[in-house]
Structure formats: C-alpha cells, structure tokens
Design brief:
single chain; 173 residues; OB fold (Dihydrolipoamide Acetyltransferase, E2P); 2 domains; 6-stranded antiparallel beta sheet
C-alpha cells in the first residue's frame, strides 16, 4: 500500500516539479546580456527627430529621439555622449544618456502569443500569464513557435527590447 502511494502521488508531483522548474527564471542584470555590447557614441546631428550618432570606430548610426522620452530620459542633443546597447546584429536596442544606464530585467517563460496587430507578447511563467509590450515589431520572433521556452529582455519601462530562445538550464542570457 505504501509503495502504491509513493508511485501514485510522489512520482507525479516530482515529475511536475521537474517540468515547471526550467520556466521559473527571472534575473536582474546591470550590464549587457550575452551577445550584446555597450558602446559610447556622440550625437553628431539631429533632423526631424532622428539622431545621428558616431561610434568610436567612426561608424555612424541613427536612432529615434522619441525612444529616450518613452523611457523617461531627456532627448539627447548634438554633442551629447550616449551609451548604446547593440544586439548581436549591431542594431541599437537601447540608448541612454552617458552615466544614466538602466537596469534590464530578464524573464523566461513559454511563448504563448506574439501579437501581429498589437505590439505585445504573452509568456506563461510560474507566476501566471504575463503580457509585455514590444519595443519594435521586428523583434526576432520568426522561427520561434508558440510553446517554446524563451527569454525576453525588458528595459526600465518594462518593454521587450530583445528575445531569444532559452535553454532549459539558462538563468539569464
């Protein structure tokens, strides 16, 4: 009788715990995540809300000045130094005034939904379903099917700025 109780109660509870544990990952980070890099750039021009910035290697990039306002930062002016976070494709995913870097949060869960009409994503986490707005619709969700384990990177405003397929043993990417 005792052996049956172990097999009928303990085993399912143990298996359920092992299946849910990999999803239970939340982490804070002060620096860039794996595959990202931070660079300091100087704003060299502003035209129609677009800022041109020059990186130390001489490369120029553009970013929308409205992004800073959405994150609670004052828009940079020509001559200002900014810290840029670049993803593995060298695209700007975040910009801060130099010295005012933010703290990003990582949330891992099962991908439940990516809105094509609304810029949002839904994850199933141990705390329940969570919806997050997407910074850009082109955040790399193609090729990742619903139900896949993913890690999203959230900026200070709680907006998804990056998304990666997660590994089951991954604490943060």
């Amino acid at each position: 009788m005792r052996h049956e109780l172990n097999r009928n109660v303990v085993l399912p509870v143990l298996l359920g715990t092992l299946l849910i544990m990999p999803v239970a990952v939340n982490a804070e980070s002060g620096g860039p995540s794996k595959g990202h890099r931070e660079v300091t750039a100087v704003v060299t021009a502003e035209k129609s809300g677009l800022l041109t910035v020059k990186l130390p290697d001489g490369t120029t990039m553009t970013l929308n000045s409205k992004n800073a306002e959405r994150h609670g930062h004052e828009a940079a002016k020509v001559g200002d130094e900014v810290t840029l976070v670049l993803n593995e494709n060298n695209a700007i995913i975040e910009a801060h005034p130099k010295g005012d870097e933010g703290s990003h949060k990582f949330v891992t869960g099962k991908l439940a939904y990516v809105g094509l009409m609304k810029n949002q994503i839904k994850l199933i986490t141990p705390e329940g379903e969570k919806m997050f707005p997407l910074e850009r619709q082109e955040i790399k969700t193609s090729g990742i099917e619903e139900g896949a384990l993913v890690t999203v990177e959230l900026n200070e405003a709680g907006t998804v700025i990056d998304l990666h397929r997660a590994k089951a043993d991954e604490k943060k990417h």
